Structures are given as C-alpha cells and as structure tokens.
C-alpha cells in the first residue's frame, strides 16, 4: 500500500471545509474530483472514512483517527515547501500578498505597481478581503495587517501606529459648527459597539437622535461620504478621501499598528524579502498620516 498525499489532502480539506462543495471551491476542482479522490483513499486503505447519506456526511471512527495524522502530514508538507522556497535567491517567481480591500486600493497598489516595474520576473497574486489568510500554510507569503501585535512565527515590521478621528461630509461639518453645543447629527457606528451612543461621540453628540449600525468599514466610509452621519474612521483612510472632513476634535491614538508580516521560514527568500522591504519602505513614507499627525500632502 502506497499512500498518495493528494488523496489525503482532499480528505483533509473536506473535513476543514465542512462540505464537498466548499472543499472543491478551495481546491479549485469540481465536486466529482473531490469525491473520487476520497473514494480512492478509502480503497487504498481498505476502510471507509466517511459515511455518506445524500449530501450529508460524517466521519467514521477510522476517519476520525486519520484527521490528526493528516494534519501532521499537512504541516510537514508546508514546512518542506517553505524550506525549499527559502533557498531560492533569484528575483523571479510568485509572491502572494494579502490585506484588506481598502488598504490595497489606497496604499498598496501604487507600491506594487512600482515593484512590478523594478522586478518584471516576479509574479504577484493579490488576495484582498476580510478573511485572515494563513501564512503557515502558504495561503499568503506577505500580509499587511492591522492589529495590536503580530502572530508568532512571523517576521514582523511595525510600520506605524493607527489613529482615528471623527469624519463626515462637508455639509455635516457646517451643521455641527452652526450648533456645536446642541448638535443632533446622526452617528455611524459599528454594530459590535452595542451602545446607545459610542464613547467617542458622547461629548460632542450626546443628543444624537439617530444611530446607524454597520458591520463593514467600506460601507461606513461610503455612508459618511454621503452625509448619512458622523463616523470614527482611521485617519489613514479618511484623510485620504477628498469627500470627507474632520467634524470635531477627537483624535484618538490606539495601541493598534500597521504590520507587514511574512513567515519566519521565508526570511532568506530573495523575492519575498525584496517585496516585503518595498512594502515597508512605501508605507513608512505615510507614517505621519497613519498616525493622524498630518492631512494628506
């Protein structure tokens, strides 16, 4: 009996994803391929790993015993890939970069455009979204993240702190200045704040009659630009937007920072190191803006 890692990988992805359809999406194959690979693994092991009932499935006792061993194999494969990649010192090949959509659009794309011009043999894969991708399993090689501290097993560079201010449309600013002591401007707040009036608004907007709760920064940014209310936003994003102005003084520094991360095993990989250094250098030019000290030049 000779085990095929790819068959085990398909089985493991099914367990992680929770359904054949989701596993197929992650593996970028059709559902039939996932089912066929798992059936081949069961045939190879001469045992059933999954009980199937229509679209429903659950692990057999043998399947449950296989999961932790498959996870160990996955860790070993990822380690081999990282160590082999770390020996590559030529500035060519693929580098995967991940961060949020707004950070890509406002800050990273100009940096990456120049990097592509300087290093035409390096291919870039840009992974934008709110989902935190795993550097350990090489879902991404470099991540730009906004957090209090970096995860373990990463090469981490703190580019700057992150400051917040209150923003809204120019029209809302005029309304506030005309009646600052008794303003009833609406408030935009994140749904998880769960307070009648957020702390940042209590002093200047204690009489606010309307509060709009949102769960996405991009939507909050657009709502603020439309004049739907006053929002507390990162200076690094809002000061960059010509349709937003600061409403009242509430500059708030936090212990969060802008971090550029890559896995520790890739510290000697030339292409990853080159791009990481370019991103750090490019972002640090905007440190004062990120920390709320300056408006956009």
From TrEMBL:
One MF annotation (Gene Ontology) recorded for this entry: DNA-binding transcription factor activity
Keyword terms of this UniProt record: DNA-binding, Transcription, Transcription regulation
Source organism, top-level taxon: Bacteria
SUPFAM superfamilies the record matches: Periplasmic binding protein-like II (SSF53850), Winged helix' DNA-binding domain (SSF46785)
Residue ranges occupied by any HTH lysR-type domain in the UniProt entry: 3-60
Keyword presence, Transcription regulation: yes
GO biological process terms held by the UniProt record: DNA-templated transcription
InterPro entries in the record: LysR-type_TF_proteobact-type, LysR_HTH_N, LysR_subst-bd, WH-like_DNA-bd_sf, WH_DNA-bd_sf
Pfam families: HTH_1, LysR_substrate
Family: Belongs to the LysR transcriptional regulatory family.
The protein, known as: Transcriptional regulator, LysR family
Organism in which the protein naturally occurs: Jannaschia faecimaris
Lineage: Bacteria, Pseudomonadati, Pseudomonadota, Alphaproteobacteria, Rhodobacterales
């Amino acid at each position: 009996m000779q085990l095929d890692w790819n068959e085990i990988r398909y089985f493991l992805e099914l367990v992680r994803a929770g359904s054949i359809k989701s596993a197929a999406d992650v593996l970028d194959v059709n559902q039939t391929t996932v089912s066929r690979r798992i059936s081949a693994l069961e045939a190879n092991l001469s045992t059933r790993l999954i009980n199937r009932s229509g679209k429903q499935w659950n692990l057999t006792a043998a399947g449950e015993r296989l999961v932790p061993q498959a996870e160990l194999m996955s860790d070993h494969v990822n380690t081999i890939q990282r160590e082999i990649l770390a020996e590559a010192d030529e500035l060519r090949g693929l580098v995967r970069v991940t961060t949020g959509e707004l950070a890509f659009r406002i800050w990273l794309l100009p940096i990456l455009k120049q990097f592509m011009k300087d290093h035409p043999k390096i291919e870039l894969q840009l992974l934008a979204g709110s989902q935190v991708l795993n550097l350990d399993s090489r879902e991404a090689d470099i991540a730009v993240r906004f957090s209090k501290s970096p995860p373990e097993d990463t090469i981490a560079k703190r580019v700057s702190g992150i400051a917040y201010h209150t923003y809204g449309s120019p029209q809302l600013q005029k309304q506030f200045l005309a009646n600052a002591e008794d303003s009833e401007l609406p408030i935009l707040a994140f749904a998880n704040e769960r307070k009648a009036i957020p702390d940042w608004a209590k002093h200047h907007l204690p009489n606010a009659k309307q509060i709009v709760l949102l769960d996405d920064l991009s939507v909050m940014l657009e709502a603020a630009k439309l004049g739907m209310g006053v929002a507390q936003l990162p200076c690094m994003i809002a000061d960059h937007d010509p349709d937003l102005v600061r409403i009242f003084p509430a500059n708030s520094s936090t212990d969060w920072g802008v971090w550029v991360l890559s896995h520790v095993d890739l510290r000697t990989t030339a292409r990853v190191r080159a791009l990481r250094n370019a991103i750090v250098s490019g972002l640090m030019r905007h440190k004062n803006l990120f920390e709320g000290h300056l408006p956009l030049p």
